[in-house]
């Protein structure tokens, strides 16, 4: 049986797929929105086979769904682990350091491995900032100034929001599916 990108179960007991509290402290809301955007990227890939995930559908753009998953693993690692936590680790995937890390070098044969690497990176990033204060800062190598963990959360939510828009278009061009999941037959 061919591997397909797994479905992400997002519904809460009341059927609300947003699953982010309307009122809560700032950390809970930031983590909730980031988690929702992480899940949204995966829902755009759900049910697709490796060849579909690695197919270019919006030429001349080189964006593909699997490339976005890989890219977000790199961006998560860069901001949460390498920059904020100061972990001396390399890249998740080999490739150019041009702002599009993870997008180049995609191979459909490694889709399952790449999804596992993404999920592992998200868990490692969450662990790296667990218990750390939103006001804690570090000197950003790319920005040249002090940046707080709060800023990193907001930057990640923005990065996901932008790329989830891309993923929505790429998914629609792959098999016509729109919304969170393709229609169930």
Mean pLDDT: 89
Report low-confidence residues grouped into runs of 5 or more. none
Radius of gyration: 17 Å
Strand content: under 5%
Helical run tally: 5
Can you tell me the CATH superfamily?
dinb family like domain
Number of strands: 2
Q: Which CATH architecture is right?
A: Up-down Bundle
Spatial arrangement of strands, main beta sheet: 1-2
Secondary structure topology:
Elements: H1 26-45, H2 50-53, H3 65-84, H4 111-129, E1 137-139, E2 146-148, H5 149-175
Antiparallel strand pairs: 1-2
Helix pairs in contact: 1-3, 1-5, 3-4, 3-5
Task: Report on this structure.
With 185 residues, the protein is mostly helical. It has one domain: Four Helix Bundle (Hemerythrin (Met), subunit A) (Up-down Bundle), CATH 1.20.120. It is built from five helices and two strands, in the order H-H-H-H-E-E-H. It has helices at 26-45, 50-53, 65-84, 111-129, 149-175; strands at 137-139, 146-148. The protein has a two-stranded antiparallel sheet with strand order 1-2. The longest helix has 27 residues, at 149-175. 31% of the residues are buried. The model has no long low-confidence stretch (mean pLDDT 89).
